């Protein structure tokens, strides 16, 4: 076949068309507008800004949530620094109160208030709670104890652990102290005899707690609690030295009866078979400084 000039031109056109189609993905060649590069750049910037705003929004949201949590925690810490000791003082009650005391003490030095309404309970558990409160007071924590209802028996001993000047009672509250031997929990005289030495030590400890915080001589504490339950309303408890102040009005609280109604009628001359302590010894008051 003779190749003419027309054949060469046709072949060249075909090759150019095929190359153009191949360079345009097989489709018709698209013309590039003059403003297309600027639009592409603007689109990329918009996408970058959107991604940045998303990241900022997420970070700000997390910071806001954290700030709200801190605020709620602070408000709870300020509001919930109260402990309620209600019911018998026994192992579980004392454990919960001690754990809560230590938790609050570890948070900060803000004052702690204990509200007590108890008829008493186990001696060793009560003394454990008393000693924990006294320890925290000794290292700088201010602990207030408020009687709302009653603080009988071991409850009256826990009451004495409060910071100086921070033993309070509501007007209609009652405090009762009695001979420590009644708290030991032994069910028979023979059982008590087996633990006589321990009983005497326990009596001595409890008598001294009452004497030290009330300012009363040991002889009077022993006499007032010997073989009797010694009940005091809030006003008389303040006069006796078992609390520091009555919270609220007291004008209509005092029962219309002789002052001697809650005091022993006479002083007996019987020998005080009390623990081995000097009954005439004057207690040392706890310093308020």
Structure in a nutshell:
By secondary structure, this protein is of the alpha/beta class. The protein contains 9 helices and 7 strands, in the order ααβαβαβαββαααβαβ.
Feature tags:
single chain; rod-shaped; 9 helices; 289 residues; 13% strand
What does this structure look like?
By secondary structure, the chain is an alpha/beta fold. It has two domains: 47 residues; 182 residues, 2-enoyl-CoA Hydratase, Chain A, domain 1 (Alpha-Beta Complex), CATH 3.90.226. The protein is 49% helix and 13% strand. The chain contains nine helices and seven strands, in the order H-H-E-H-E-H-E-H-E-E-H-H-H-E-H-E. Strands 1, 2, 3, 4, 5, 6 and 7 form a seven-stranded mixed β-sheet that branches. Helix 3 runs parallel beside helix 4. The longest helix is centred in the first third of the chain and has 44 residues. The radius of gyration is 42 Å and the shape is rod-shaped.
């Amino acid at each position: 076949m003779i190749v003419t000039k027309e054949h060469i031109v046709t072949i060249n056109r075909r090759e150019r068309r095929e190359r153009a189609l191949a360079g345009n993905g097989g489709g018709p060649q698209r013309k590039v507008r003059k403003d297309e590069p600027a639009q592409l750049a603007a689109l990329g910037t918009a996408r970058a800004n959107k991604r940045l705003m998303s990241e900022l929004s997420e970070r700000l949201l997390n910071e806001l949530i954290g700030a709200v949590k801190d605020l709620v925690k602070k408000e709870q810490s300020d509001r919930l620094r109260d402990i309620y000791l209600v019911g018998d003082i026994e192992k579980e009650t004392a454990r919960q109160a001690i754990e809560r005391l230590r938790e609050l003490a570890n948070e900060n030095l803000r004052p702690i208030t204990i509200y007590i309404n108890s008829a008493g309970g186990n001696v060793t558990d009560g003394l454990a709670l008393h000693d924990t409160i006294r320890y925290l007071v000794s290292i700088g924590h201010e602990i207030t104890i408020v009687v709302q209802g009653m603080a009988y028996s071991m409850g009256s001993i826990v009451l004495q652990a409060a910071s100086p000047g921070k033993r309070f009672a509501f007007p209609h509250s009652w405090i009762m102290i009695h001979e420590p031997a009644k708290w030991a929990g032994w069910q028979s005289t023979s059982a008590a005899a087996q633990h006589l030495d321990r009983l005497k030590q326990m009596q001595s400890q409890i008598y001294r707690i009452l004497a030290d915080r009330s300012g009363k001589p040991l002889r009077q504490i022993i006499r007032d609690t010997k073989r009797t339950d010694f009940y005091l309303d809030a006003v008389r408890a303040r006069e006796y030295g078992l609390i520091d102040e009555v919270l609220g009005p007291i004008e209509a609280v005092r029962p219309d009866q002789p002052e001697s109604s809650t005091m022993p009628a006479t002083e007996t001359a019987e020998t005080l078979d009390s623990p081995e302590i000097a009954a005439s010894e004057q207690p040392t008051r706890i310093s308020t400084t």
